[in-house]
Design brief:
heterodimer; A: mainly alpha; two-stranded antiparallel sheet; 2 strands; 70% helix; disordered C terminus; B: mainly alpha
């Protein structure tokens, strides 16, 4: 970008024009938007076709999703309740993706967060509101520690982060299953009459539940949503406006440059990974202390919130603020899907819609980039031979 | 039941649980040697399991079902390859989305359809199956299991001895250098993914029309991830990868059999074992440069 002459900068009118130009999408932007719209239509069409082929009614299904999620206060309450953990997980994913680290173990981190939260909540005796805070903090610490293990493995041995976080998800599932089915661990008294332990932890004390946030007009706002919103806005501001955020983004864009300018790439990259785990863990804690749930730790506590939150971050292209509306869309699908399955159409249809939706959002910019590279290839085909590509010692 | 009998039973069920893993691991091994971390192997297995049962139900032939499973794997390999090595979308993103899509699609379709159960026939090798202890487990299987005897050496030869395999390994170790010598890096990776898709499809189809005879929702239940774990556990060597599959298959068989024998061993630990072992193997092996150097890194001409 070339610097504008100084005289032009003095004109307020011009400043405004330049500001507007930043907002206006370029040719690529319009094409991306258009292609996204087309692909969303294709995704919707494919889902409708799938329904028709299997003897369902697309119209009735769309109605059911609408009724279950947005039509009335109950629907809105459910939707918002679903949106909070999704947003938290997505925000975490945004943080470490900005640093160029790809964490795909959120599902496990959510569970470990729940485990840590449940352990603290069941063992500490504290007055009401304080206990909730402590449980949530423990959950965040648990999720963060679980992700930090991956960071340590990367630092010590260069273990591939996506793979280690993925594998650790399955360890987390087994760990939580073990915890909730072992009497001495998280299940002190909940033995059934047969002597076989129920696969759930004891219920958290009443003081460890998150209160509502008032009703307006009759939609119940949950505190978790506000925590998630604050996290999203906070992370967005910190990432784009602070020195720390600049360093993080620099690692993501070019670790070598970051290293040369004195950023401690490994430490900061590892920290962002742990931070993303902490956000996922916090989401797990939120599910645990949720005002509507069972307030017990179960192996099914995470209920795909980790995977879905990751998909939210993918669709939002790692921008925390964009993740807010996207998580709302996914929450609508989750809430509506539950309602849909009550009408006889299997819930799994919603999973198909979600995956197609992600493809519709992820593919266009890449496709357009590919297309323009193809077209631009004729004049710029010759590679720049002045710079001999040298193998970079695994900087990331 | 005598000790010998129960050992034979556990071994037999262990081998049966190993075969689908071994098929898919043969494919995943090729994909990883080409430098692409293919996590959609779960989708390939699950999708193939579904289409094989659906096709077998429609045509009445389990063998046609098996072929349909291979085709499904190929299609998914093609899609994955084009998304991650032509359009350059992050390969983990593509894998995750494909896994979610196939899981949702198969779970949905199985609830809205009824399929007739089909199974390929057994093949028992006359004299060998009478050997005590190992006879039944090794020489009395559904016939596609014996394909492994051909596919493992073929995969080994393809990767380690053929020119294509040499180029493939070059692509996995140093794509820039491979590119300079005129190898089409991303094309080799897409081809590797096709091989992976075909074999993972065979593994998934074997699970459905071979072992079980029907399709259940999420019937692979993370086997695709165990396959990835097996390749890591095998330190990117085919023989050890197969050994890893056997270890994981046997541990799964133990988990299923031990309660019936009255032995209490922690079930969670046995389920977690493959992942735990893979993580330990990664901790041990990665510094010894066993891992393909460009594993999981996309190749774009001009980038470093």
């Amino acid at each position: 970008m070339s610097a504008a002459p100084l005289t032009k900068l003095t004109s307020g009118d011009d400043l405004a024009r330049r500001f507007l130009a930043r907002l206006r999408p370029g040719r690529d932007g319009w094409m991306t938007a258009g292609l996204t719209a087309v692909l969303i239509a294709v995704a919707a069409g494919a889902s409708a076709l799938l329904l028709l082929l299997t003897g369902g009614s697309p119209r009735a299904s769309a109605d059911a999703i609408w009724t279950g999620s947005l039509a009335d206060a109950t629907g809105w309450t459910t939707t918002l309740l679903n949106a909070a953990p999704l947003l938290l997980v997505a925000v975490g994913a945004c943080v470490c993706a900005s640093a160029g680290t790809f964490n795909i173990g959120q599902e496990g981190q959510v569970l470990i967060g729940g485990l840590a939260g449940a352990w603290v909540g069941l063992r500490l005796a504290m007055p009401g509101p304080m206990l909730v805070v402590v449980v949530l903090l423990a959950a965040a610490a648990g999720g963060g520690a679980w992700a930090a293990l991956s960071a340590v493995m990367l630092r010590l041995r260069g273990v591939n982060v996506p793979v280690s976080t993925l594998l650790m998800t399955f360890l987390a599932i087994q760990l939580v299953t073990f915890a909730v089915s072992t009497p001495w661990f998280l299940q002190e008294s909940a033995q059934g009459s047969s002597g076989i332990a129920d696969a759930a932890s004891n219920q958290l004390p009443a003081g460890a539940r998150l209160g509502g946030f008032g009703q307006y007009p009759s939609v119940q706002w949950n505190t978790g949503l506000f925590i998630a919103l604050v996290a999203a806005v906070g992370v967005a501001v910190v990432l784009t406006r602070s020195r720390w955020g600049f360093r993080v983004r620099m690692i993501g864009l070019n670790p070598l440059t970051a290293k040369h300018t004195g950023v401690r790439v490994a430490a900061l990259g590892g920290f962002t990974l742990a931070l993303s785990g902490a956000f996922a863990g916090l989401a797990g804690g939120l599910l645990l202390v949720s005002p509507v749930g069972t307030n017990r730790l179960q192996a099914g506590l995470s209920d795909n919130f980790g995977w879905d939150g990751l998909l939210v971050a993918l669709v939002a292209r790692n921008r925390p603020l964009v993740a807010i509306p996207v998580s709302l869309v996914f929450a609508v699908l989750r809430a509506g899907g539950d309602f849909l399955s009550a009408t006889g159409v299997p819930y799994y249809l919603v999973d198909v819609v979600k995956a197609l939706l992600v493809l519709a959002f992820v593919a266009p910019p890449v496709l357009i980039d590919l297309y323009s590279r193809r077209r631009g290839a004729t004049p710029q085909a010759a590679p720049d031979l002045s710079v001999v590509p040298t193998k970079v010692k695994a900087a990331a | 039941m005598s000790v010998l009998d129960s050992t034979t039973t556990i071994l037999a069920s262990g081998v049966r649980l190993t075969v689908p893993l071994a098929f898919a691991a043969c494919g995943e091994y090729v994909a990883e040697r080409a430098g692409t971390m293919n996590i959609s192997v779960e989708a390939m297995m699950l999708g193939a399991a579904f289409t094989s049962i659906a096709t077998a139900s429609a045509t009445g032939s389990a063998t046609v079902g098996l072929a349909a499973g291979v085709v499904t794997g190929l299609v998914l390999g093609f899609v994955h390859g084009n998304f991650s090595h032509r359009a350059q979308i992050n390969t983990f993103v593509v894998g995750l989305v494909l896994n979610a899509l196939v899981l949702g699609l198969t779970s949905y379709l199985i609830t809205t359809n009824e399929f007739v159960s089909h199974q390929v026939h057994m093949l028992s090798i006359p004299l060998l199956q009478d050997i005590p202890l190992i006879g039944k487990p090794l020489f009395s299987e559904r016939w596609p299991a014996f394909l492994l005897l051909a596919l493992i050496p073929l995969t080994w030869w393809l990767v380690e001895r053929s020119r294509w395999g040499l180029e493939l390994r070059a692509v996995g170790e140093n794509p820039q250098a491979a590119d300079v010598t005129g190898i089409k890096v991303n094309m080799r990776r897409r081809q590797a993914l096709l091989w992976c898709g075909a074999l993972a499809g065979l593994g998934g189809a074997y699970l459905a029309v071979g072992e079980v005879g029907s399709f259940n929702q999420n019937m692979t239940a993370g086997r695709g991830y165990i396959v990835i774990a097996a390749v890591i556990f095998g330190a990117w060597r085919l023989g050890r990868t197969m050994l890893g599959c056997l270890v994981f298959g046997l541990s799964d068989a133990m988990r299923l059999a031990l309660p019936a024998l009255g032995v209490t061993l922690n079930a969670q630990l046995l389920v977690a074992a493959p992942y735990l072992l893979a993580l330990l193997a990664m901790l041990l092996f990665t510094t010894q440069h066993r891992e393909p150097a460009a594993l999981g890194r996309p190749f774009e001409r001009g980038s470093t």
